[in-house]
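The record is passed on directly below:
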Amino acid sequence: MPPTTPVRRTLAALVASAALLGAAAVPAVAAPHATPSAQAAYGDSARLAYQKAVTVRVLKGVFERGDTEVVDRFVRPDYIQHNPLAPDGAETLKNLGTAVHQQFPDAEYRVQRVISEGDLVLVHSNVVMTPGTRGTAVFDIFRFQGGRIAEHWDVGQNVPDTTANGNDMFSTVSWPRTSRPGPGLLTACNKKLVVAAFDQLIVKKDLSALDRYWGPGYEQHNPAIANGVSGAKAGLGAYFKAAPQLRVEPKRVIAEGDLVAVHSHYIPAPGERGQAVVDLFRVQGGRIVEHWDVIQDVPATSANDNTMF
């Protein structure tokens, strides 16, 4: 949810590409050997857990240990890539992972939260290539097909020194302070609420949505916006005024429990490439109580033909 300072990829291409799948530092769930028909027998909750476990296993294996066998096992050979720095294909992922691991053997992939819905998995991470640095905030989205990773989108932003709200870009501040999604029975209701709220506030640029859908103790993690509903009104009001022709195109929504993510293309004015943005909202009691986001400028060129969306 802009505004924020312009996103600059100050890392070298190799470092930035290391975020092409995100990070992994959450306890792994044992991933079963399963065909699509076998997975169905586990039920939906087990399938979602399987997808999250596979995602973590691949990420940790490739980027922390340089293990390319997990790619052969869990990533489709025709893997579709939307990170503009990387070509398509599982072989590219294996080569990149090996190179990154060799150059940055102490890199940490600090996963903050993972959610899954349908065939999609979203990972929110702090990627730290060199110990002692703030690293990058990254959202990754993966699509599964036949029990294997088939497609990937991501958005990355350098972590700043300070924030306007006093919150970092990763922690959970609202109560309970957990990074795990809430009960799955609330997923559909919370997703419907966020879709409506996002449409009114961001797509239609109607600030009154903040009074209708947001809670009074709203916690903000966008580093450029002050905390609370008042901070959101001031920050977004200034952004909408500065970009009167702003068009926002939601591309996909992923929800689990109390967490709902919206992946969008923000286009400030006609003819501009705009920004790829992932907004992650936490819902409690029918109100949005917390928000994280990552914003990346869409580059002029790409190593693949798939766009960032």
In short: The two ends are 17 Å apart (CA to CA). The chain has a mean pLDDT of 88. Residues 44-65 form the longest helix (22 residues). The CA atoms of residues 69 and 178 lie 33 Å apart.
